[in-house]
Every structure is written in structure tokens, then in C-alpha cells.
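Standup notes, structure subgroup. Blocker cleared on the guanosine-5'-triphosphate input:
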Amino acid sequence: MSPKQNHLRQAKFVTSAPDIRHLGEDSGIEIAFAGRSNAGKSSALNCLTEQKALARTSKTPGRTQLINVFAIDEDRRLIDLPGYGFAQVPLEVKKKWQASLSEYLQERDCLRGIVVLMDIRHPLKDVDMQMIEWSVHNRLPVLALLTKSDKLKSGAAKNTVLKVRKELAAYADLIQVESFSSLKKAGKERVLNILHDWLGIVDEDEIEQAEQ
Ligand SMILES: Nc1nc2c(ncn2[C@@H]2O[C@H](COP(=O)(O)OP(=O)(O)OP(=O)(O)O)[C@@H](O)[C@H]2O)c(=O)[nH]1
Ligand SMILES: [Mg+2]
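Run returned:
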């Protein structure tokens, strides 16, 4: 069932942090969007929050080099993480942002789930597997989101989803796999359901029913 109200629409930009010391208090709930550069993280955030330019998107990989924080309300935040695994960036810059990324993942207690975004045409690269295995190791739920599904015919896209599910079957208790297109808004409802669930947002209707 889809959430009647998309609470992500309330998301507002809070800050761009170079490292976790510049983030706000480690309380409430955070959901992080991670993935290789150019995977479509910022585009997905804009699509899911129904805001055209909340997160900056770019044709140039490596655009998001800071930890961008978007608040939904006082207790809930979405985090746009710097893209990983992009080679054509000066080594010093790359090292610095990989360090802030791994620090965020290791130390942020309020992190409740990670969306690992992968271009549906190139899923499960080594760096993606590292991210997924790290999350599973830390018992953190993962949504493996196969982005830019509009680039494949629907049969091919479905096959890729099935293939990726099969490859990640060992971690099925913690991992969900979905296809997604920011361009076509495909898969949006399913993703919103998962994120509302992680954020602990329950439909008011459901609460009423439970109380009766
Ligand atoms: N066709 C298509 N293109 C997309 C989709 N999502 C993103 N793109 C394009 O892919 C490119 C990268 O998108 P971004 O959202 O900036 O990617 P990112 O993961 O935030 O990249 P970094 O910030 O560099 O890590 C842009 O040119 C987007 O327009 C999609 O669903 N379909
Ligand atoms: Mg980005």
C-alpha cells in the first residue's frame, strides 16, 4: 500500500558538511543515499521529494562532494552522500571525500537505512558490493535501487532486477531490490513505501484503524 501522503515532500536543505563534525546532532533517524558517481542519487532525491532542484544534479560525475543534509521534520533526515569510485578526480580530493563517507557510515548512530543506487546497466560493481556487504555486516537495511531503468526495455529491466535479487539472496532479510527511473518516476511508490517505513512514518488512517 502506498503512503497517502508523501512526507518526503517536506524535505528542506539544511547543510553541506565536509565531514561528520559539521553535521547536526546524531539523533532521530537518517537515511543515506549512496552510490557511484553519476548513479543518479541527487536525481532520485529530487524525484522522491517532488522538488525539482532540492539536490544538485550534474552530467559531470563527482558533483556531490559534500554530505548534503535534507530535513523532513525535526527528527528525520535524508542524506545525499558523495559518490564513490570515480577515478578521474584528483587523488587528494578523492581521498578526502572517501574518508568523510566511510566516517559517516561508521560513526553515525542515527543512520537507519542505506539506499545503494546503481545504474541498472552496470549493477553490483566491486565498490557497490563493498558498500552492501558493509551495511549487512552492520545489520543496516539496504535498498538496492537500480536507477535509470528508462534506459532499458521493460523486459530487460525486470530481468536485471531478478538477477540482482538472486545475487543478493544470501542477504535477503536485509536487502530489497527495486528498479527506478527519476525521469519516468517509475518505481517511485514502492520506494516511498520503503522509506516511510524506515523513517517510522505510519499512515494516519492506519493509526486510526489500529486504535478502533
Ligand atoms: N535517463 C535517465 N537519466 C538519469 C536518471 N537519473 C539521473 N539521470 C542522469 O544521470 C546524471 C547523473 O545524475 P545525478 O543525479 O547528478 O547523479 P549523482 O549520483 O548524484 O552523481 P554525483 O553527485 O556525481 O555522485 C545526470 O545527467 C542525470 O540527468 C534517470 O532516471 N534516467
Ligand atoms: Mg549528486
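Discussed briefly. Residues 144 and 177 are 5 Å apart (CA to CA).
Next: hand off to the docking folks.
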